[in-house]
């Protein structure tokens, strides 16, 4: 069921929210009954991040949060359809001006498209992702999951920006000197907790939740909660309701769900 949905359903459209939230709820129930099943836990994280990603669509103030969720999903490309995941991450980064990241991800997308045509991953170059927690081990789909028009548009954009000296083929880094989306610090092998909203590492300024060890990046959490208040988004409220049920209220009432 998960594989079929990952192949056919949108990763970015608001209309897909009900699909991903329903899958999230099913996987949450399974994970509660089988807490030792790592596959269910990973699939649950995918479904939750896809819920956050799609809930952010149509709300300009949430585009960065949606992009972070799309980038975090690359951590699970051993479960997701890889060409689709990299395409969506690249498009999301491009939409908010993260052109270096967009260039890397869309270039990877095009390389995976070539691999699909060849039927082999043997020629994939992993050097851009050597210091990340993005897996190399991917399963190629039998056919492209992105339309020919979108593939051509991505190719034209990558070729155009490759001649722009302002754009570099590098991933954004953070205060650790690591790829900003990586939970693992490659310099000291310390793994940071992931934000329950975006999947990004929480390095400081955290919101702590009462019933679990879960945390969120304070700035992203506040933006999301405020956007829900202003927009009255049913989808954003559903994400917050799910998180409240699974993690409890924030320990600091200043960061409440309301």
Provide an overview of this structure.
- With 258 residues, this protein is mostly helical.
- The chain has nine helices and four strands; from the N terminus they run αααααααββββαα.
- The strands form two sheets. The protein has a two-stranded antiparallel sheet. It has a two-stranded antiparallel ribbon with strand order 3-4.
- β1 and β2 form a beta hairpin.
- The longest helix is centred in the middle third of the chain and has 20 residues, at 99-118.
- The radius of gyration is 18 Å and the shape is globular.
Quick gist of this model?
The protein has 258 residues and is mainly α. It is 50% helix and 4% strand.
Mean pLDDT, all residues:
93
Give helix and strand order, one letter per element, not per position.
Answer: HHHHHHHEEEEHH
Low-confidence stretches: none
Report the structural category: mainly alpha
The residue fraction in helices comes out at 40-55%
Give the C-alpha Rg: 18 Å
What's the overall geometry? globular
What separation lies between the terminal Cα atoms?
A: 34 Å
Oligomer: single chain
SSE blueprint:
Layout: H1 2-8, H2 17-33, H3 38-55, H4 63-72, H5 82-95, H6 99-118, H7 148-161, E1 184-185, E2 190-191, E3 206-208, E4 215-217, H8 218-231, H9 234-247
Helix pairs in contact: 2-3, 2-9, 3-4, 4-5, 5-6, 6-7, 8-9
């Amino acid at each position: 069921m998960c594989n079929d949905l990952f192949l056919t359903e949108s990763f970015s459209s608001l209309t897909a929210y009900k699909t991903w939230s329903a899958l999230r709820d099913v996987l949450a129930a399974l994970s509660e009954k089988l807490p030792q099943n790592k596959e269910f836990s990973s699939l649950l994280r995918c479904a939750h991040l896809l819920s956050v990603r799609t809930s952010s669509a149509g709300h300009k103030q949430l585009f960065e949060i949606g992009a972070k969720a799309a980038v975090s999903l690359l951590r699970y490309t051993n479960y997701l359809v890889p060409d689709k995941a990299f395409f969506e991450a690249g498009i999301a980064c491009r939409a908010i001006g993260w052109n270096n990241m967009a260039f890397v991800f869309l270039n990877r997308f095009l390389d995976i498209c070539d691999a699909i045509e060849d039927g082999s991953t043997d020629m994939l170059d992993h050097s851009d992702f050597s210091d990340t927690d993005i897996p190399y081990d991917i399963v190629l789909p039998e056919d492209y999951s992105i339309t020919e028009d979108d593939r051509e548009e991505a190719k034209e954009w990558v070729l155009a920006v490759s001649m722009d000296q302002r754009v570099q083929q590098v991933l954004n880094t953070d205060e650790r000197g690591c790829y900003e989306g990586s939970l693992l610090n490659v310099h000291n092998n310390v793994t940071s907790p992931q934000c329950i909203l975006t999947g990004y590492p929480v390095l400081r300024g955290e919101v702590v939740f009462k019933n679990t060890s879960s945390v969120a990046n304070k700035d992203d959490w506040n933006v999301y909660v405020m956007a829900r208040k202003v927009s009255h988004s049913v989808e954003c409220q559903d994400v917050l309701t799910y998180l409240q049920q699974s993690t409890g209220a924030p320990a600091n009432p200043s960061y409440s769900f309301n």
